[in-house]
Amino acid sequence: MKVLLGLFAAAVILLPGIANAGTINLSYITSTPIGSTGTDWTGTLAFQKFDPALGTLNSVTIDLSGSMSTQLTVTNDGSSSSDGSAKTELQITVQDVGNNLTAPAVDVFSPIFDFSPLAVNETKISGWLTKTYSSSDLYTTAAVLSEFTGASGNTVLDASTLTTTWLSFTGGNILASQVTNASLTGTVTYNYTPEPATMAMLGFGALSLAARRRRGR
User: Fold this and answer.
1) pLDDT tens per residue across span 129-170
2) Domain ranges (residues) in the chain
């Protein structure tokens, strides 16, 4: 079942931090997280671009996270009882317009539903099985750095899911179906080398803060 997504407008900026000597990390949470939605869905994740006025962009790290909930239904329409198990595989692909990102970004299995034994003409339902997931990918290619760079605006990534039911059984003849919901959010982290003037301001700010702390003692 494909569901159109409602997008939330709530961008969050995380404060920059010093990564290594001479570089800074700056992170933004997507302004369009995807809430728990029936799969298979398609949507987008939007991230604020890196402002080149800050310095030279070295790398882009995309961290994704979310959760799945799935319910499996199995029926034995064979002539003998059956023993086995079932599970749902969820693949989430997040991709840029140039297809430069790792795909799928997430590949996760639900907890296993053991339906042994299953009598002839019997149906069992797993109840809701849940699983959280996350992924992290770092990119340094010129194509990705270029797509995430701009004085204003967002980089928009396409997101989609693919769900599959996996069966393992002996005896009988098993029919299976699944109903699955999945959510997705993400954070982009820009590692960059600031302009010399910016580094000087950061150094001055750190010294000023240390001086204020000493005076407050």
Assistant:
1) 999 999 999 999 999 999 999 999 999 999 999 999 999 999
2) 12-68+89-111+129-160+180-215
Sequential DSSP letters for the chain: ---PPPPP---EEEEEEE-STT-EEEEEE-SS-EEEEESS-EEEEEEEPB-GGGEEEEEEEEEEEEEEEEEEEEEE-SSS-BEEEEEEEEEEEEE-TT--S-SSSEEEEPPPEE--SB-TT-EEEEEEEEEEEEEEEEE--HHHHHHTB-SSSEEEEEEEEEEEEEEEEESS-EEEEEEEEEEEEEEEEEEEEE-HHHHHHHHHHHHHHHHHHHHT-
Query: In the CATH scheme, what is the code of domain 12-68+89-111+129-160+180-215?
Result: 2.60.120.1200
- pTM for the model stands at 0.82
